[in-house]
Design brief:
The protein is α/β, with parallel strands linked by helices. The chain is built from 17 helices and 8 strands. A hairpin with a 5-residue loop joins strand 4 and strand 5.
């Protein structure tokens, strides 16, 4: 018990471990809502019979891709959903009955309120024996119910087996449910060091299963304990080199904040009231806070819409001074998931009174222009192409922002340097 607590404490302090690089990553939390929205779209398309017969280009590919972008722990999350033509799996593309069963499963899980209901939904799906549709789908359930359903992949399974001596195998829902029970017990025992969110214990097991850590000995073996302590010390040394990568990520965060600051100051100079993302307002910027001089609450017409929780996380929103009608929204995509930013702005554009938002902008480094265009070409966003979302390059914003602030009027100055998508 004591050695495992020692391991968890080391893991929490490890700058290169999943606790600091993924679990505490603010974008992880911002992505929950957009992934849930994406799954709702999958369900609606299946119910309407418009989902199609392939993974590529589908709404499912869009949402699973956004999960796979979530740092190392979800790398390869899309493999289970890729169509394998020789095996004809997973059989949710060519078999309409299986596709509808999958849609009902997602819809049921989205509406569940507790673990028992989720387990019943899993068992109902399992009874259908749909080829190739195994517990990798639990990664979707995690983003619906992070306190009830843990993520699932090979490294997590390997870490659990190494830590507990279990022999959990991949590919069967019953194996996943047994793993889940063990993870809940482990999480409950060490709740003070982990979290109600099962992503924390999954991250610990991932680092064990991927070889970053060696699990503590399960028996009272002095030699094994000494070897394990030596391994732990080695990991700490390796973390020093990993801190360079973390420093680069933090530099990215600073750049993200700086661009938000440019947009804040430009918006105010052009005569708009400005909203800064709720989770960024207190960040340090220019000798103060990023939210200084900005709106403290969303206007009532926006705060009361169904998508208000997502709108609060949009990086920067400009509102018409006086009427507080939304004029423009900006998502700064330095290194983060472009998909999630698009979904947040659509919540604003489609939920605003009379849909009066004049400008929707994806603000990103020049090198990410192709990534931005690829996302907007996804079929999932074709239905909202009339909203004319535009790309605003860092270089153009940096080069012209001071002149725009001095001589610009309204959104015309921004439109002049933005690019159509």
């Amino acid at each position: 018990m004591q050695t495992l607590e020692t391991l968890i404490r080391h893991w929490r302090d490890d700058s290169g471990g999943t606790y600091r690089t993924w679990f505490l990553w603010e974008e992880r939390l911002k992505n929950f809502r957009s992934i849930r929205r994406g799954l709702q779209t999958v369900v609606k398309e299946i119910e309407a019979g418009s989902f199609g017969t392939q993974y590529r280009g589908s709404s499912l590919e869009t949402v699973v891709h956004s999960i796979a972008e979530q740092r190392q722990i979800f790398k390869g999350a899309d493999h289970a959903f890729l169509w394998k033509p020789k095996l004809r799996i997973p059989d949710i593309y060519e078999n309409p009955d299986h596709q509808r069963a999958f849609g009902r499963f997602l819809d049921t899980c989205a509406c569940c309120t507790g673990g028992d209901d989720l387990i019943r939904a899993i068992r109902e799906l399992d009874r259908r024996a749909i080829k190739g549709l195994g517990p990798a789908a639990a990664n979707l359930l995690y983003f619906l119910h992070p306190t009830h359903m843990p993520p699932f992949n090979t490294a997590i399974v390997n870490g659990y087996n190494a830590l507990t001596g279990a022999k959990v195998k991949l590919g069967k829902w019953e194996e996943y449910l047994a793993l889940r029970e063990g993870m809940l017990r482990l999480n409950g025992t060490h709740r003070g060091l982990l979290s109600n969110d099962l992503g924390a214990v999954a991250g610990l097991l991932f680092d064990l299963g991927s070889g970053r850590y060696t699990p503590p000995p399960r028996e009272d073996d002095g030699a094994a304990l000494s070897a394990w302590q030596a391994d732990l010390a080695k990991v700490r040394e390796e973390s020093a080199s990993a801190s360079k990568a973390l420093a680069a990520a933090r530099e990215g965060d600073r750049t993200h904040i700086e661009v938000q600051g440019w947009l804040r100051d430009l918006g105010r100079a052009l005569g708009f009231d400005v909203w800064i993302a709720a989770n960024d307002r207190s960040r340090a910027y220019a000798g103060g806070r990023l939210g200084d001089g900005c709106l403290d609450t969303l206007p009532p017409g926006i705060a009361g819409t169904p998508g208000a929780d997502a709108v609060r996380l949009i990086d920067v929103v400009w509102f018409e001074r006086g009427t507080l009608a939304p004029a423009a929204a900006f998502e700064v995509e330095h290194t983060t998931s472009i998909y999630s930013g698009i979904v947040r702005m659509l919540d604003l554009a489609l939920g605003a009174p009379e849909r009066a938002v004049q400008g929707l902008y994806l603000v990103a480094p020049d090198a990410r222009e192709s990534d931005v265009r690829d996302q907007l070409r996804r079929p999932a966003f074709q239905a909202v192409s009339h909203l004319n979302m535009r790309y605003l390059p860092y270089s153009e914003l940096e080069r012209h922002r001071e002149a725009m602030a001095r001589f610009g009027q309204g959104l015309r100055a921004v439109e002049a340097i933005a690019r159509a998508l």
